[in-house]
TrEMBL record:
Pfam families in alphabetical order: LacI, Peripla_BP_3
Record's keyword annotation contains Cell wall biogenesis/degradation: no
InterPro entries associated with the record: HTH_LacI (IPR000843), LacI/GalR-like_sensor (IPR046335), Lambda_DNA-bd_dom_sf (IPR010982), Peripla_BP_I (IPR028082)
Transcription among keywords: yes
Native species: Saccharothrix coeruleofusca
Annotated Gene3D superfamilies: 3.40.50.2300, lambda repressor-like DNA-binding domains (1.10.260.40)
Record protein name field: LacI family transcriptional regulator
Domain HTH lacI-type: 6-63
Example GO molecular function: DNA-binding transcription factor activity
Keywords attached to this entry: DNA-binding, Repressor, Transcription, Transcription regulation
Length: 352
């Protein structure tokens, strides 16, 4: 069996610096970015001692290039919620001995166009264009002039760029299945959207797709929710208000909230009404926001796989770069599964 290939991560661990620092030094860019001479010497010495060799260029990728890719977002880079998306992309890039350049536009189309131009001028191998939440976006001018991937975004106009999205329909099925398997058949209310598939917050692809998955499972099990409360935003105060409206008319047995912040508000309204989760009312939600682990009992939620989304986008980007010609027509959409995180917010219903 051949000897295992030494990676950038191996050199970084042995040197005691980050993988990014090693990559910059070995790419000859250490001094440009003010990495000290002493660190440069240690990195180069360690790489030589370990026998590190750079990978040969992949077939189909352009020769003699920068070994960098761009990551352009609206607000992802400064968001605590989606920081794992960046880490997933970074790790996937580092595994291929590539660096990642970040840019953030704040959602300004002109800034997006300028950042795309700047990244192309610096000869990045490709660009991941990411949105904080799944939405329809205008594809920046120049993005399709080289390998690129849309992450958490669908193109507003015709585009052949590949797309990476969370599997929201599958998430809706998973959340509904939790209640069905626990024996809930009556007294179920939706908080956040509905009753129709068009009754969702503006531009909320996630809401529509989650409702599709929920209705698939409920329909198959012969379950009909009692009510569905549309919310203009998915914040705790919206969940609190919607749950209060439900309690004024009904005695709910289960709440299926369209995100964890809504569920947090629902918890407060239930507590004020003297109702206990899950003894009186079961609650299921989506996103795996930190709120889900803070509340008591811990919330059962279907997680947004931020890390996996970032890694998948880089994987798809490299696959797109290796294609000699880009297929035209509808974009290929890659769906990343959303895992269920079981808490203690759902109680099984005894058969009567």
């Amino acid at each position: 069996m051949g000897r295992r290939r030494v990676t950038l991560a191996d050199v970084a661990k042995a040197t005691g610096v980050s993988t990014t620092t090693v990559s910059l030094v070995l790419a000859g860019r250490g001094r440009d970015l003010r990495i000290s001479e002493e660190v440069e010497r240690r990195v180069r010495s360690t790489a030589q001692e370990l026998g590190y060799r750079r990978k040969t260029l992949s077939v189909g990728l352009r020769a003699g290039r920068s070994r960098t890719i761009g990551f352009l977002s609206d607000t992802v880079a400064s968001s605590l919620l989606a920081g794992a998306m960046i880490r997933g992309a970074l790790e996937a890039a580092h595994q291929r001995d590539f660096m990642l350049f970040f840019g953030e536009s704040g959602g300004d189309p002109e800034v997006e166009r300028t950042l795309v131009e700047a990244m192309r001028d610096r000869q990045v191998e490709g660009i991941v264009f990411a949105a904080m939440y799944t939405r329809v976006v205008g594809v920046p001018e120049g993005l399709d002039r080289g390998p690129a991937v849309l992450l958490n975004a669908l193109p507003a106009a015709c585009s052949s760029l590949p797309v990476v999205l969370p599997d929201e329909v599958g998430a809706g099925r998973a959340a509904a299945q939790v209640l069905v398997e626990a024996g809930h058949r009556e007294g179920i209310h939706l908080v956040g959207a509905g009753p129709g598939l068009d009754d969702v917050p503006p531009n909320s692809i996630a809401a529509t797709e989650r409702l599709v998955g929920i209705r698939q499972v409920f329909g198959g099990a012969g379950v009909e929710e009692v009510s569905a409360r549309w919310c203009p935003k998915w914040m705790p105060e919206d969940g609190y208000r919607a749950t209060g409206e439900i309690l004024r008319r009904y005695r709910p047995r289960a709440l299926l909230c369209l995100n964890d912040r809504l569920a947090f508000g629902a918890y407060q309204a239930l507590a004020e009404a003297g109702l206990s989760v899950p003894d009186d009312v079961s609650v299921v939600s989506f996103d795996d926001h930190p709120i889900a682990s803070w509340v008591r009992p811990r919330l059962t939620t279907v997680a947004l796989p931020h890390h996996e989304l970032g890694a998948k986008a880089v994987e798809v980007l490299f696959a797109a770069a290796e294609q000699r010609s880009r297929p035209r027509g509808a974009p290929v959409v890659h769906r990343v599964p959303m895992p269920l995180r079981r808490g203690e917010s759902v109680k099984a219903v005894r058969a009567s």
